[in-house]
TrEMBL record:
GO biological process, one term: molybdate ion transport
GO molecular function, one term: ATP hydrolysis activity
Keywords for this protein: ATP-binding, Molybdenum, Nucleotide-binding, Transport
Domain ABC transporter per the UniProt entry, residue ranges: 2-228
Mop domain mapped to chain residues: 282-343
Gene3D superfamilies: 2.40.50.100, P-loop containing nucleotide triphosphate hydrolases
InterPro entries registered for this protein in UniProt: AAA+_ATPase, ABC_SmlMolc_Importer, ABC_transporter-like_ATP-bd, ABC_transporter-like_CS, Mo/tungstate-bd_C_term_dom, Mop_domain, P-loop_NTPase, Transp-assoc_OB_typ1
Record PANTHER family: SPERMIDINE/PUTRESCINE IMPORT ATP-BINDING PROTEIN POTA, SPERMIDINE_PUTRESCINE IMPORT ATP-BINDING PROTEIN POTA
The protein's name in its UniProt record: Molybdate transport system ATP-binding protein
């Protein structure tokens, strides 16, 4: 196994990111939409040639120092959300394509990798005759059949049906164990369970890197906090147990350290601590704040809502009953005991 070092600088896209992976390491590359993740992967794969790129795999220079190695000679496999199999070729021919282009006539190679992903029985089918999970397994076989030094996975589970995810995830775990891999994912659980390290990029820059657990449990950015499933509000101390966010929202919480009036602090609270109402709730000592629903993600029996920048988890039944939809005005209530205040 070999190391990967990449420095991608693309002023046109506002991207300036360095990645260093030890041989065999798996790094989860995470960040909001437009942060630059795909730009980094495409550059390493040789599909994009930004203003400046230095890419080294082991002791081979793929980009920089006057070199630009074309994609098919990089020994770098990129697997995206969509399997992108050739529609007119059978599954076997799809898997054999990479090694054949590289001059390897070894017919057993395709069979070997199809077997490895548990897709031997599908060898004579065309891509249109495959389910999403099957097609992604074949795409993994096709990527591995070239025996790449580096594997780049761009949200490989994102477009799969929920039922197909566990099997493909299991397969990916085996891939990761055998190669140097960059995994772009939005799923904190995948980052924690599949990756050795996580690198968070925001607006084209690395803002945090470390073990996945550390990055996700001690988030340094609103994105990291949202990933970890925690609301993180940065603000100013306005009372012994109070914080005001830059947009003027006041939160009462439980202080975990000395809170000096006027100093910076953060409030963190779980999405499950947020109750959502159509009408302004009265009564008990709670934080009661108005908001607008900006996002809804159904996750089985629960529903993750984004309400004016904060995350709230409600049951799917409750979301239906409240007729929640993007644009809807709602009220959030959060118990002060559920809001943790930390001096910055
Ligand atoms: N073909 C292009 N030409 C110019 N700018 C682009 C192009 N594609 C993307 N960009 C810009 O480059 C920046 C980085 O985009 P990139 O696709 O790398 O982000 P990303 O982190 O992969 O996002 P996502 O999670 O949405 O896939 C963004 O500002 C984007 O608008």
């Amino acid at each position: 196994m070999v190391s990967l070092a990449a420095w991608v600088r693309d002023p046109a896209r506002g991207v300036d990111v360095r990645l260093d992976l030890a041989a065999g390491e798996t790094v989860a590359l995470m960040g909001p939409n437009g942060a630059g993740k795909s730009t980094v992967l495409a550059t390493v794969a040789g599909l994009l040639r930004p203003a400046e790129a230095h890419v080294r795999v082991g002791d081979r220079v793929l980009a920089g120092e006057g070199q630009w190695v074309p994609p098919h000679r990089r020994s770098v496999a990129l697997l995206g959300q969509q399997p992108r199999l050739f529609p007119h070729l059978t599954v076997r021919e799809n898997v054999a394509f990479g090694p054949r282009s590289a001059g390897r006539k070894d017919a057993d190679l395709a069979e070997h990798w199809l077997d490895w992903v548990g897709a031997s029985a599908l060898a004579d089918r065309r891509p249109r005759e495959l389910s999403g999970g099957q097609a992604q397994r074949v795409a993994i076989a096709r990527a591995l059949a070239t025996e790449p030094d580096v594997v780049l996975l761009d949200e490989p589970l994102a477009s799969l049906d929920v039922e197909a995810v566990p099997e493909v995830r299991r397969l990916l775990r085996r891939v990761l164990a055998e190669t140097t891999t960059v995994l772009v994912t939005h799923d904190p659980l995948d980052a924690m369970t599949l990756a050795d390290r996580a690198v968070i990029v925001e607006a084209g820059r690395v803002v945090h890197e470390g073990t996945a657990r550390d990055v996700l449990t001690h988030p340094r950015s609103a994105f990291g906090a949202a990933l970890a499933g925690v609301n993180l509000v940065e603000g100013v101390v306005t009372g012994p147990d109070h914080l005001r966010s830059p947009d003027g929202r006041e939160l009462a919480g439980t202080a975990r350290g000395a809170m000096d009036l006027g100093s910076a602090a953060t409030a963190t609270f779980a999405p499950s601590a947020v109750a959502v109402h159509r009408e302004r709730p009265g009564g008990s000592p709670r934080n009661v704040l108005p908001g607008v629903v900006t996002g809804i993600e159904v996750r089985g029996t629960t529903c993750r809502l984004e309400i004016s920048g904060w995350l709230a988890d409600v049951t799917t039944a409750a979301a239906a009953e409240l007729e929640l939809e993007p644009g809807r005005d709602v009220w959030m209530s959060i118990k002060a005991t559920e809001v943790r205040l930390d001096p910055a």
